[in-house]
Every structure is written in C-alpha cells, then in structure tokens.
Amino acid sequence: MKRHPVFRSHAHALRGFTLLEALVGITIFSLVIVILYTGYRLGMRSWESGERTHAAVSELRLAGSFIRRHAAQAFPLAISEKNAWRMWFHGEPHRLVFVTAMPAYLGQGGMYEMTLELDEREDGAALMVSRRLLHPDSEPGRPGVEDQPRPLVENLNGARFAFYGAQAKDAPRAWHDRWDARQRLPGLVRLRLDSKTAGEWPELVIRLPADAVRYQRSVAPGSPGQQTLQGGLLPADTSILAPGLVQ
Known about the structure:
The chain is an alpha+beta fold. It has two domains: about 1-75 and about 85-210; about 215-245, no CATH class. It is about 25% helix and about 35% strand. It has two helices and 15 strands. It has helices spanning about 5-15, 20-70, and strands at about 75-80, 85, 90, 95-100, 110-120, 125-135, 145, 150-165, 175, 190-195, 200, 205, 215, 225-230, 230-235. Strands 3, 4, 5, 6, 7, 8, 9, 10, 11 and 12 form a ten-stranded antiparallel sheet that branches. The protein has a three-stranded mixed sheet with strand order 2-1-13, with no helix packed on it. A two-stranded antiparallel ribbon has the order 14-15. A hairpin with a 7-residue loop joins β4 and β5 (about 110-120). Mean pLDDT is about 70; it is low at about 210-245.
C-alpha cells in the first residue's frame, strides 16, 4: 500500500536534526557568544580606560589648584645672611621651594617652607610636596619641623618648572630654568605636567607677589639680652625679625 505524502513529511519531522545540522547550529551559537563576549570586554576596557583618564584629569586639576593657591600666596621673605639680603626662594627645573602661610584649620597654622619636587620612579614619576614649619631659628636648607614628602600627582612622564623675570637689576625679563637671584622673586612661575594617562596638561602659570618682606634684628626695649617677634621673646643670637619692604 502506498503511503500518503503527508505521513512521510510528518515522519521526517519526528526524526529531528541531523548531526550536520546540529554542528552548524552549535557553531553559529558559539560564534554569537564569542562576539557578544568580545564586545562586552571591549566595552569594559573602554569604560576602565575612561575611568582612569577621568581620575588622572581630576588628580591633575586638584594638584594644579593646590599649587596655584599656595604659590600665589607665597610669602616674599628675605633673610639676612652675611650682611646681605637673600630671598627665601629657590627654583630649579624639577624643584621649587618657597614660603607660604598655612591656615590654622588645616592643622598647625603659621608660616611654612613648602617644597615641590619631582621624584623619578621606575613605574612613573611623582610630584612630591613637603612642608616645614618655620620658627625664629629657621634657615633655608636646615632641618626643622617637617612632615614627610607626600605625592601630589603620580604616574607622570615628567614635570618641569620655569621662572620669568629679570635675575639682575639691568637684565632683560625672560624665562629661566633656574632662579638664582638673591634679591628678587620671579614675576611668574610656570609648571608643565605630562601624565602617562591624561597626556600633557595645559601649562600652569602663577603670578608671585612683587614686594618682599625683610627680617632683621629687633631688640626689645629694656631687655638687652632678648629679641622680640610678634610679642614673643627670642634668643639674642637670632637674626630673624622686624618686617619691612626691601628697597
């Protein structure tokens, strides 16, 4: 007896997929999974890269704000040294030392010597900051009440300071890699930062105060063996003291 075609088609459907059809289906499904996973990984890497860049930009922005705030408030202090006046300021391509005021709410208020210095490392350079509390016996380069250097910006390719002004009375104003003038501060300080993550940051240019404050001996009336600074008594051999404008 001859089977009806409908019954033959139904019987064929009941047999399911052939081995070849199953292999093709599994292969296509695997390719779809690989494509989806690859896209997910690429998306996560892009997200992580964006997060790192955002963090680096935020770090650079905060560091620039910190440096600008304190350098713009640099205290132009001159000290007596061997019968001559010398500015308490030192500038090199990778190091800057200046005096600034620290508000009391940030810790122990008063005048501080602040140092910004590039620290070269194997995994990337870091711009370090340290502070030294000044007192009547303080002198540049001598130990004092100092905190440990802390990283202000890390993961850098480099950082470089430059100083604008005339280093001598009749010299033209220009940019200098070092500031060695003993009688004057630079008019401007420039800082360039190159981040491994965020690339070169726009240069930071800071204007410094124009006048300087001179410290000299000031003997308290009626106290031949003592000196005074802002109402406090100091040893007679102290050579820091009454403020006045450097001419």
